[in-house]
Amino acid sequence: KAGVTQTPRYLIKTRGQQVTLSCSPISGHRSVSWYQQTPGQGLQFLFEYFSETQRNKGNFPGRFSGRQFSNSRSEMNVSTLELGDSALYLCASSLPSSGANVLTFGAGSRLTVL
Amino acid sequence: GENVEQHPSTLSVQEGDSAVIKCTYSDSASNYFPWYKQELGKGPQLIIDIRSNVGEKKDQRIAVTLNKTAKHFSLHITETQPEDSAVYFCVIMNRDDKIIFGKGTRLHILP
Question: What is the chain B residue with the closest CA to A9?
Answer without folding.
Answer: B41
